[in-house]
Amino acid sequence: MARLHPDTLAHLPAGVERPRYRRDALQAGIVHLGVGAFHRAHIAVVNEAALHASADLRWGTVGVSLRAADTRDALRPQAGLYTLALRDAADDGSPREALQVVGNLLDVLVAPENPQAVLARIAHADTRIVSLTITEKGYHHDPATGALRLDAPDIVHDLAHPGAPRTMPGFVVHALALRRARGLAPLTVLSCDNLPANGDTTRGIVLAFAHAVDAGLRDWIAAHCTFPNSMVDRIVPRTTDADRARISERLGVDDAWPVIGEPFLEWVVEDSFANGRPDWTAGGARFVAHAQPYEKLKLRMVNGAHSALAYLGATAGFRTVDRAMAEPALRAFIDALMREEIAPTLPAMEGLDLDAYRTRLLQRFANPALQHQTKQIAMDGSQKLPQRLLGTVRDRLAAGRPIDRLALAVAGWLHYLRGVDETGATHEIQDPLASALAQRLAQAGAASSMQDRVAFFTGFAPVFGELGSEPRFVAAVARALGVLEAHGVRGALAASEPNA
Ligand code: CS2
Asked: Going from the N-terminus, what domains does the chain have, and what CATH number goes with each?
Protein backbone atom coordinates (compact mmCIF):
# COMPACT_ATOMS: atom_id res chain seq x y z
CA MET A 1 0.00 0.00 0.00
CA ALA A 2 1.31 3.51 -0.85
CA ARG A 3 2.14 5.83 2.04
CA LEU A 4 0.15 8.87 3.09
CA HIS A 5 2.09 11.72 1.50
CA PRO A 6 1.45 15.04 -0.28
CA ASP A 7 1.65 13.10 -3.56
CA THR A 8 -1.08 10.66 -2.54
CA LEU A 9 -3.48 13.23 -1.01
CA ALA A 10 -5.43 13.58 -4.25
CA HIS A 11 -6.31 9.88 -4.16
CA LEU A 12 -7.94 9.90 -0.73
CA PRO A 13 -11.63 9.01 -0.68
CA ALA A 14 -14.06 11.93 -0.84
CA GLY A 15 -15.23 12.80 2.64
CA VAL A 16 -11.74 12.73 4.13
CA GLU A 17 -10.83 16.33 4.95
CA ARG A 18 -7.36 17.46 3.92
CA PRO A 19 -5.22 20.62 3.89
CA ARG A 20 -6.65 23.32 1.63
CA TYR A 21 -4.00 26.00 2.20
CA ARG A 22 -0.64 26.41 0.49
CA ARG A 23 1.37 24.00 2.53
CA ASP A 24 4.59 24.74 0.66
CA ALA A 25 4.31 28.41 1.66
CA LEU A 26 3.77 27.80 5.40
CA GLN A 27 6.26 29.35 7.80
CA ALA A 28 7.05 27.68 11.09
CA GLY A 29 5.66 30.22 13.57
CA ILE A 30 5.03 27.61 16.25
CA VAL A 31 7.50 25.25 17.87
CA HIS A 32 5.63 22.59 19.81
CA LEU A 33 7.46 20.64 22.51
CA GLY A 34 5.92 17.22 23.16
CA VAL A 35 4.48 16.36 19.77
CA GLY A 36 2.46 13.38 20.99
CA ALA A 37 -1.06 12.23 20.25
CA PHE A 38 -2.68 14.91 22.39
CA HIS A 39 -1.03 17.77 20.51
CA ARG A 40 -1.81 16.21 17.17
CA ALA A 41 -5.48 15.65 18.06
CA HIS A 42 -6.07 19.04 19.69
CA ILE A 43 -3.81 22.06 19.21
CA ALA A 44 -2.68 21.10 15.71
CA VAL A 45 -6.28 20.51 14.64
CA VAL A 46 -7.46 23.87 15.93
CA ASN A 47 -4.47 25.44 14.21
CA GLU A 48 -5.42 23.64 11.00
CA ALA A 49 -8.89 25.21 11.13
CA ALA A 50 -7.29 28.64 11.58
CA LEU A 51 -5.17 28.05 8.48
CA HIS A 52 -8.26 27.05 6.54
CA ALA A 53 -10.11 30.15 7.68
CA SER A 54 -7.46 32.78 6.96
CA ALA A 55 -4.71 33.60 4.53
CA ASP A 56 -2.17 33.99 7.33
CA LEU A 57 0.52 31.46 6.50
CA ARG A 58 2.85 32.30 9.40
CA TRP A 59 1.55 29.51 11.58
CA GLY A 60 2.97 26.17 10.56
CA THR A 61 4.31 23.96 13.36
CA VAL A 62 7.65 22.30 13.97
CA GLY A 63 7.16 19.54 16.52
CA VAL A 64 9.81 18.45 18.98
CA SER A 65 9.98 15.09 20.72
CA LEU A 66 11.90 15.44 23.96
CA ARG A 67 12.57 11.73 24.26
CA ALA A 68 11.85 9.16 21.54
CA ALA A 69 12.30 9.21 17.77
CA ASP A 70 9.15 7.20 16.99
CA THR A 71 6.88 10.10 15.99
CA ARG A 72 9.54 11.56 13.68
CA ASP A 73 10.23 8.12 12.19
CA ALA A 74 6.54 7.59 11.50
CA LEU A 75 5.76 11.05 10.14
CA ARG A 76 8.83 12.13 8.19
CA PRO A 77 8.17 9.69 5.30
CA GLN A 78 4.68 11.25 5.24
CA ALA A 79 6.13 14.78 5.09
CA GLY A 80 4.42 15.43 8.43
CA LEU A 81 0.91 14.48 7.27
CA TYR A 82 -1.20 12.33 9.56
CA THR A 83 -4.83 11.43 10.08
CA LEU A 84 -7.11 12.42 12.93
CA ALA A 85 -9.98 10.00 13.53
CA LEU A 86 -12.84 11.38 15.64
CA ARG A 87 -14.80 8.46 17.06
CA ASP A 88 -18.09 8.00 18.81
CA ALA A 89 -21.10 5.74 18.57
CA ALA A 90 -24.12 6.11 16.31
CA ASP A 91 -27.60 5.82 17.84
CA ASP A 92 -27.57 2.05 17.31
CA GLY A 93 -24.28 1.81 19.24
CA SER A 94 -22.11 1.09 16.22
CA PRO A 95 -18.80 2.97 16.09
CA ARG A 96 -18.52 5.87 13.68
CA GLU A 97 -15.46 7.76 12.68
CA ALA A 98 -14.71 10.98 10.78
CA LEU A 99 -11.28 11.24 9.16
CA GLN A 100 -9.20 14.34 8.54
CA VAL A 101 -5.66 14.57 7.23
CA VAL A 102 -3.85 17.35 9.09
CA GLY A 103 -1.05 19.26 7.37
CA ASN A 104 0.40 22.01 9.57
CA LEU A 105 3.07 19.84 11.16
CA LEU A 106 6.02 20.68 8.94
CA ASP A 107 8.73 18.68 10.64
CA VAL A 108 9.51 16.76 13.80
CA LEU A 109 12.84 17.20 15.60
CA VAL A 110 14.14 14.63 18.07
CA ALA A 111 15.77 16.58 20.88
CA PRO A 112 18.19 13.93 22.22
CA GLU A 113 19.57 13.36 18.69
CA ASN A 114 20.17 17.00 17.97
CA PRO A 115 19.49 19.46 20.78
CA GLN A 116 21.22 22.23 18.81
CA ALA A 117 18.59 21.99 16.08
CA VAL A 118 15.86 22.50 18.66
CA LEU A 119 17.59 25.53 20.16
CA ALA A 120 18.12 26.96 16.68
CA ARG A 121 14.46 26.45 15.80
CA ILE A 122 13.20 28.24 18.93
CA ALA A 123 15.77 30.98 18.33
CA HIS A 124 14.66 31.36 14.68
CA ALA A 125 13.22 34.70 13.61
CA ASP A 126 10.01 33.01 12.33
CA THR A 127 9.20 31.43 15.71
CA ARG A 128 6.58 33.34 17.67
CA ILE A 129 5.01 30.73 19.94
CA VAL A 130 6.51 27.80 21.83
CA SER A 131 3.62 25.58 22.86
CA LEU A 132 3.90 22.69 25.29
CA THR A 133 2.24 19.34 25.92
CA ILE A 134 5.02 17.62 27.80
CA THR A 135 2.81 16.02 30.49
CA GLU A 136 2.95 16.95 34.14
CA LYS A 137 6.32 15.33 34.74
CA GLY A 138 7.97 17.34 31.96
CA TYR A 139 7.96 20.43 34.19
CA HIS A 140 10.38 18.98 36.77
CA HIS A 141 8.45 20.74 39.48
CA ASP A 142 7.23 19.86 42.89
CA PRO A 143 3.61 18.82 42.18
CA ALA A 144 2.36 20.08 45.54
CA THR A 145 3.84 23.59 45.21
CA GLY A 146 4.49 24.06 41.48
CA ALA A 147 8.09 25.18 42.11
CA LEU A 148 10.95 24.07 39.85
CA ARG A 149 13.13 21.37 41.43
CA LEU A 150 16.52 22.93 40.85
CA ASP A 151 18.08 19.74 42.22
CA ALA A 152 16.34 17.40 39.73
CA PRO A 153 19.16 15.62 37.83
CA ASP A 154 18.06 16.73 34.35
CA ILE A 155 17.70 20.34 35.51
CA VAL A 156 21.18 20.23 37.04
CA HIS A 157 22.41 18.85 33.72
CA ASP A 158 20.66 21.56 31.70
CA LEU A 159 22.06 24.37 33.83
CA ALA A 160 25.54 23.03 33.10
CA HIS A 161 24.97 22.36 29.37
CA PRO A 162 23.44 25.38 27.62
CA GLY A 163 24.25 23.92 24.19
CA ALA A 164 22.68 20.51 24.80
CA PRO A 165 19.71 20.66 27.13
CA ARG A 166 17.22 17.84 27.75
CA THR A 167 14.25 19.48 29.42
CA MET A 168 11.60 22.05 28.57
CA PRO A 169 13.03 24.70 30.94
CA GLY A 170 16.50 24.03 29.52
CA PHE A 171 15.44 24.39 25.88
CA VAL A 172 13.19 27.38 26.44
CA VAL A 173 15.61 29.39 28.57
CA HIS A 174 18.79 28.67 26.62
CA ALA A 175 17.00 29.43 23.33
CA LEU A 176 15.57 32.66 24.77
CA ALA A 177 19.12 33.63 25.73
CA LEU A 178 20.05 33.18 22.06
CA ARG A 179 17.08 35.29 20.93
CA ARG A 180 17.98 38.03 23.35
CA ALA A 181 21.64 38.00 22.29
CA ARG A 182 20.61 38.19 18.62
CA GLY A 183 18.17 41.02 19.20
CA LEU A 184 15.18 38.89 18.11
CA ALA A 185 11.65 39.48 19.34
CA PRO A 186 10.46 37.72 22.50
CA LEU A 187 7.83 35.01 22.21
CA THR A 188 4.90 33.34 23.91
CA VAL A 189 5.33 30.15 25.91
CA LEU A 190 1.95 28.42 25.87
CA SER A 191 1.46 25.50 28.22
CA CYS A 192 -1.35 23.16 27.20
CA ASP A 193 -0.83 20.65 29.98
CA ASN A 194 -3.27 19.73 32.72
CA LEU A 195 -1.55 21.75 35.43
CA PRO A 196 -3.20 24.28 37.69
CA ALA A 197 -2.54 27.80 36.40
CA ASN A 198 -0.43 26.15 33.72
CA GLY A 199 0.83 29.45 32.28
CA ASP A 200 1.70 30.99 35.64
CA THR A 201 3.30 27.72 36.74
CA THR A 202 5.38 27.56 33.56
CA ARG A 203 6.40 31.18 34.00
CA GLY A 204 7.57 30.49 37.55
CA ILE A 205 9.56 27.45 36.40
CA VAL A 206 11.13 29.21 33.40
CA LEU A 207 12.05 32.28 35.46
CA ALA A 208 13.55 30.16 38.25
CA PHE A 209 15.70 28.34 35.71
CA ALA A 210 16.65 31.59 33.96
CA HIS A 211 17.58 33.18 37.28
CA ALA A 212 20.02 30.34 37.89
CA VAL A 213 21.54 31.09 34.45
CA ASP A 214 21.67 34.88 34.50
CA ALA A 215 19.61 37.43 36.42
CA GLY A 216 19.55 39.79 33.41
CA LEU A 217 18.09 37.06 31.22
CA ARG A 218 15.47 36.35 33.86
CA ASP A 219 14.42 39.99 33.88
CA TRP A 220 14.30 40.16 30.07
CA ILE A 221 12.04 37.09 29.92
CA ALA A 222 9.85 38.40 32.73
CA ALA A 223 9.45 41.76 30.99
CA HIS A 224 8.91 40.59 27.41
CA CYS A 225 7.70 36.99 27.11
CA THR A 226 4.15 35.93 27.95
CA PHE A 227 2.83 32.72 29.48
CA PRO A 228 -0.94 32.54 28.95
CA ASN A 229 -2.95 30.17 31.11
CA SER A 230 -5.04 27.77 29.08
CA MET A 231 -7.56 25.01 29.52
CA VAL A 232 -7.47 22.15 27.03
CA ASP A 233 -9.98 19.37 26.78
CA ARG A 234 -10.29 16.40 24.44
CA ILE A 235 -10.04 12.73 25.30
CA VAL A 236 -7.25 11.21 23.22
CA PRO A 237 -6.63 7.51 23.80
CA ARG A 238 -3.42 5.88 22.66
CA THR A 239 -3.50 4.71 19.01
CA THR A 240 -3.60 0.91 18.65
CA ASP A 241 -2.43 -1.32 15.80
CA ALA A 242 -6.08 -2.02 15.04
CA ASP A 243 -6.64 1.75 14.64
CA ARG A 244 -3.69 1.98 12.26
CA ALA A 245 -4.90 -0.90 10.15
CA ARG A 246 -8.53 0.26 10.01
CA ILE A 247 -7.68 3.88 9.17
CA SER A 248 -5.12 2.96 6.51
CA GLU A 249 -7.70 0.62 4.98
CA ARG A 250 -10.27 3.43 4.84
CA LEU A 251 -7.77 5.93 3.42
CA GLY A 252 -6.42 3.52 0.83
CA VAL A 253 -2.93 4.64 1.83
CA ASP A 254 -0.82 3.67 4.80
CA ASP A 255 -0.67 6.10 7.74
CA ALA A 256 2.01 4.92 10.21
CA TRP A 257 0.65 6.96 13.09
CA PRO A 258 -2.88 8.32 12.99
CA VAL A 259 -4.37 9.78 16.17
CA ILE A 260 -7.75 9.06 17.75
CA GLY A 261 -9.98 11.49 19.60
CA GLU A 262 -13.53 12.14 20.72
CA PRO A 263 -15.54 14.73 18.75
CA PHE A 264 -15.70 17.03 21.83
CA LEU A 265 -13.07 19.76 22.06
CA GLU A 266 -12.55 22.80 24.26
CA TRP A 267 -9.67 25.24 24.39
CA VAL A 268 -9.82 28.38 26.48
CA VAL A 269 -6.73 30.56 26.24
CA GLU A 270 -5.75 33.85 27.85
CA ASP A 271 -5.31 36.40 25.12
CA SER A 272 -1.83 37.49 26.06
CA PHE A 273 0.59 36.80 23.20
CA ALA A 274 3.99 38.49 22.99
CA ASN A 275 4.49 38.12 19.26
CA GLY A 276 1.16 37.49 17.51
CA ARG A 277 -1.07 34.45 17.30
CA PRO A 278 -3.30 32.60 14.85
CA ASP A 279 -7.04 33.10 15.01
CA TRP A 280 -7.75 29.82 16.71
CA THR A 281 -11.40 30.78 17.23
CA ALA A 282 -11.92 29.26 13.77
CA GLY A 283 -11.20 25.85 15.34
CA GLY A 284 -13.35 26.35 18.43
CA ALA A 285 -10.86 28.03 20.78
CA ARG A 286 -12.02 30.85 23.03
CA PHE A 287 -9.79 33.74 24.04
CA VAL A 288 -10.46 35.14 27.50
CA ALA A 289 -8.86 37.51 29.99
CA HIS A 290 -8.62 34.89 32.76
CA ALA A 291 -8.56 31.16 32.07
CA GLN A 292 -8.14 29.96 35.63
CA PRO A 293 -11.83 29.38 36.41
CA TYR A 294 -12.07 27.21 33.26
CA GLU A 295 -8.93 25.30 34.21
CA LYS A 296 -10.23 24.63 37.68
CA LEU A 297 -13.55 23.42 36.31
CA LYS A 298 -11.83 21.11 33.85
CA LEU A 299 -9.10 19.74 36.12
CA ARG A 300 -11.51 19.02 38.96
CA MET A 301 -14.49 17.73 37.00
CA VAL A 302 -12.98 16.01 33.93
CA ASN A 303 -9.62 14.96 35.28
CA GLY A 304 -10.67 14.44 38.90
CA ALA A 305 -13.50 12.15 37.84
CA HIS A 306 -11.27 10.48 35.24
CA SER A 307 -8.60 9.60 37.79
CA ALA A 308 -11.21 8.30 40.24
CA LEU A 309 -12.68 6.17 37.46
CA ALA A 310 -9.24 4.96 36.41
CA TYR A 311 -8.03 3.84 39.86
CA LEU A 312 -11.28 2.28 41.00
CA GLY A 313 -12.06 0.93 37.53
CA ALA A 314 -8.62 -0.57 36.88
CA THR A 315 -8.55 -2.11 40.36
CA ALA A 316 -11.96 -3.67 39.77
CA GLY A 317 -10.56 -5.20 36.56
CA PHE A 318 -12.10 -2.86 33.94
CA ARG A 319 -9.60 -2.27 31.15
CA THR A 320 -11.38 0.63 29.49
CA VAL A 321 -13.24 3.68 30.74
CA ASP A 322 -16.46 2.87 28.90
CA ARG A 323 -16.57 -0.60 30.48
CA ALA A 324 -16.04 0.95 33.91
CA MET A 325 -18.86 3.40 33.16
CA ALA A 326 -21.13 0.49 32.22
CA GLU A 327 -20.94 -0.71 35.84
CA PRO A 328 -23.98 1.05 37.35
CA ALA A 329 -22.47 1.45 40.83
CA LEU A 330 -19.30 3.03 39.44
CA ARG A 331 -21.20 5.35 37.13
CA ALA A 332 -23.46 6.42 40.00
CA PHE A 333 -20.43 7.02 42.20
CA ILE A 334 -18.68 9.19 39.59
CA ASP A 335 -21.87 11.15 39.05
CA ALA A 336 -22.31 11.73 42.79
CA LEU A 337 -18.62 12.57 43.24
CA MET A 338 -18.95 15.35 40.67
CA ARG A 339 -22.36 16.55 41.78
CA GLU A 340 -22.00 16.41 45.55
CA GLU A 341 -18.32 16.99 46.23
CA ILE A 342 -16.58 18.60 43.23
CA ALA A 343 -19.15 20.96 41.71
CA PRO A 344 -19.84 22.85 44.96
CA THR A 345 -16.16 23.90 45.08
CA LEU A 346 -16.29 25.59 41.68
CA PRO A 347 -16.80 29.30 41.17
CA ALA A 348 -20.01 30.36 39.44
CA MET A 349 -19.25 31.06 35.80
CA GLU A 350 -21.39 33.03 33.43
CA GLY A 351 -23.01 30.85 30.82
CA LEU A 352 -21.99 27.61 32.49
CA ASP A 353 -24.68 25.07 33.31
CA LEU A 354 -22.81 22.70 35.63
CA ASP A 355 -25.52 20.03 35.50
CA ALA A 356 -25.37 19.95 31.72
CA TYR A 357 -21.56 19.90 31.87
CA ARG A 358 -21.67 16.90 34.20
CA THR A 359 -24.24 15.03 32.12
CA ARG A 360 -22.19 15.62 28.98
CA LEU A 361 -19.10 14.38 30.76
CA LEU A 362 -20.78 11.14 31.76
CA GLN A 363 -21.65 10.63 28.08
CA ARG A 364 -18.09 11.41 27.02
CA PHE A 365 -16.67 8.89 29.48
CA ALA A 366 -19.16 6.28 28.23
CA ASN A 367 -18.07 6.68 24.57
CA PRO A 368 -17.59 3.03 23.54
CA ALA A 369 -15.68 3.85 20.36
CA LEU A 370 -12.65 5.26 22.19
CA GLN A 371 -11.47 2.18 24.09
CA HIS A 372 -9.63 4.51 26.44
CA GLN A 373 -7.46 2.37 28.73
CA THR A 374 -7.90 2.94 32.45
CA LYS A 375 -4.16 2.28 32.86
CA GLN A 376 -3.29 5.16 30.55
CA ILE A 377 -5.09 7.56 32.88
CA ALA A 378 -3.78 5.81 36.00
CA MET A 379 -0.14 6.56 35.18
CA ASP A 380 1.80 9.39 36.83
CA GLY A 381 -0.63 9.67 39.73
CA SER A 382 1.89 11.55 41.88
CA GLN A 383 1.89 14.34 39.31
CA LYS A 384 -1.87 14.38 38.81
CA LEU A 385 -3.55 13.95 42.18
CA PRO A 386 -2.74 17.39 43.63
CA GLN A 387 -4.63 19.40 41.00
CA ARG A 388 -7.25 16.77 40.22
CA LEU A 389 -8.41 15.70 43.69
CA LEU A 390 -6.41 17.21 46.54
CA GLY A 391 -7.22 20.88 45.87
CA THR A 392 -10.89 19.92 45.96
CA VAL A 393 -10.30 18.08 49.24
CA ARG A 394 -8.68 21.19 50.74
CA ASP A 395 -11.56 23.43 49.69
CA ARG A 396 -14.13 21.00 51.08
CA LEU A 397 -12.32 20.71 54.40
CA ALA A 398 -11.96 24.48 54.66
CA ALA A 399 -15.72 24.75 54.15
CA GLY A 400 -16.37 22.02 56.73
CA ARG A 401 -17.97 19.76 54.13
CA PRO A 402 -17.72 15.95 53.83
CA ILE A 403 -15.05 14.39 51.61
CA ASP A 404 -16.04 10.71 51.66
CA ARG A 405 -16.16 10.22 47.89
CA LEU A 406 -12.98 12.16 47.26
CA ALA A 407 -11.32 10.07 49.97
CA LEU A 408 -12.44 6.88 48.22
CA ALA A 409 -10.85 8.15 45.00
CA VAL A 410 -7.58 8.87 46.82
CA ALA A 411 -7.76 5.49 48.56
CA GLY A 412 -8.30 4.00 45.08
CA TRP A 413 -4.90 5.36 44.09
CA LEU A 414 -3.23 3.83 47.16
CA HIS A 415 -4.98 0.55 46.43
CA TYR A 416 -3.91 0.68 42.77
CA LEU A 417 -0.29 1.27 43.82
CA ARG A 418 -0.17 -2.27 45.21
CA GLY A 419 0.31 -3.31 41.56
CA VAL A 420 -2.36 -6.03 41.50
CA ASP A 421 -6.04 -5.77 40.65
CA GLU A 422 -9.00 -7.67 42.06
CA THR A 423 -8.80 -10.35 39.38
CA GLY A 424 -5.23 -11.07 40.48
CA ALA A 425 -3.67 -9.50 37.36
CA THR A 426 -0.55 -7.43 38.02
CA HIS A 427 0.20 -4.01 36.58
CA GLU A 428 3.32 -1.92 36.51
CA ILE A 429 3.28 1.41 38.37
CA GLN A 430 4.33 4.03 35.83
CA ASP A 431 5.19 7.17 37.72
CA PRO A 432 8.30 9.37 37.90
CA LEU A 433 8.14 8.92 41.69
CA ALA A 434 7.40 5.18 41.50
CA SER A 435 10.32 4.06 43.66
CA ALA A 436 9.69 6.67 46.37
CA LEU A 437 6.00 5.69 46.38
CA ALA A 438 6.81 1.98 46.61
CA GLN A 439 9.14 2.64 49.51
CA ARG A 440 6.52 4.71 51.33
CA LEU A 441 3.91 2.06 50.75
CA ALA A 442 6.18 -0.69 52.08
CA GLN A 443 7.12 1.33 55.16
CA ALA A 444 3.50 2.32 55.76
CA GLY A 445 2.59 -1.37 55.68
CA ALA A 446 4.54 -1.85 58.92
CA ALA A 447 2.25 0.53 60.84
CA SER A 448 -0.04 -1.07 63.38
CA SER A 449 -3.32 0.59 62.40
CA MET A 450 -4.93 1.65 59.13
CA GLN A 451 -4.98 5.21 60.44
CA ASP A 452 -1.20 5.18 61.03
CA ARG A 453 -0.59 3.54 57.66
CA VAL A 454 -2.48 6.24 55.79
CA ALA A 455 -0.96 9.01 57.92
CA PHE A 456 2.52 7.75 57.08
CA PHE A 457 1.79 7.43 53.37
CA THR A 458 0.08 10.79 53.06
CA GLY A 459 2.98 12.34 54.92
CA PHE A 460 4.68 12.28 51.50
CA ALA A 461 4.82 16.05 51.03
CA PRO A 462 5.66 16.27 47.29
CA VAL A 463 2.16 14.95 46.60
CA PHE A 464 0.10 15.71 49.69
CA GLY A 465 1.71 18.89 50.99
CA GLU A 466 0.34 19.53 54.47
CA LEU A 467 -2.77 17.34 53.96
CA GLY A 468 -1.03 14.35 55.53
CA SER A 469 -1.26 16.04 58.90
CA GLU A 470 -4.95 16.90 58.48
CA PRO A 471 -6.77 14.39 60.73
CA ARG A 472 -10.09 14.58 58.84
CA PHE A 473 -8.35 13.72 55.57
CA VAL A 474 -6.34 10.88 57.04
CA ALA A 475 -9.39 9.44 58.81
CA ALA A 476 -11.54 9.55 55.66
CA VAL A 477 -8.89 7.93 53.46
CA ALA A 478 -8.19 5.29 56.13
CA ARG A 479 -11.89 4.46 56.34
CA ALA A 480 -12.17 4.17 52.56
CA LEU A 481 -9.02 2.08 52.21
CA GLY A 482 -10.20 -0.22 55.00
CA VAL A 483 -13.43 -0.93 53.12
CA LEU A 484 -11.59 -1.30 49.79
CA GLU A 485 -9.24 -3.86 51.26
CA ALA A 486 -11.95 -5.78 53.07
CA HIS A 487 -14.74 -5.67 50.48
CA GLY A 488 -13.18 -4.63 47.18
CA VAL A 489 -14.21 -1.82 44.86
CA ARG A 490 -17.81 -3.02 44.57
CA GLY A 491 -18.14 -3.24 48.33
CA ALA A 492 -16.67 0.22 48.77
CA LEU A 493 -19.02 1.67 46.16
CA ALA A 494 -22.02 0.09 47.83
CA ALA A 495 -20.87 1.47 51.19
CA SER A 496 -20.52 4.96 49.71
CA GLU A 497 -24.22 5.10 48.80
CA PRO A 498 -25.94 7.40 51.30
CA ASN A 499 -28.67 4.84 51.97
CA ALA A 500 -26.32 1.89 52.34
C1 CS2 B 1 -6.62 11.87 31.31
C2 CS2 B 1 -6.49 13.08 30.41
O3 CS2 B 1 -4.71 10.58 30.85
C4 CS2 B 1 -5.28 11.29 31.70
O5 CS2 B 1 -4.80 11.50 32.79
O6 CS2 B 1 -7.35 12.22 32.43
O7 CS2 B 1 -5.55 12.92 29.43
C8 CS2 B 1 -7.84 13.45 29.80
O9 CS2 B 1 -8.29 12.48 28.89
C10 CS2 B 1 -7.78 14.80 29.11
O11 CS2 B 1 -7.25 15.75 29.98
C12 CS2 B 1 -9.16 15.21 28.64
O13 CS2 B 1 -9.12 16.51 28.21
From this structure: 6-288 (3.40.50.720), 292-496 (1.10.1040.10)
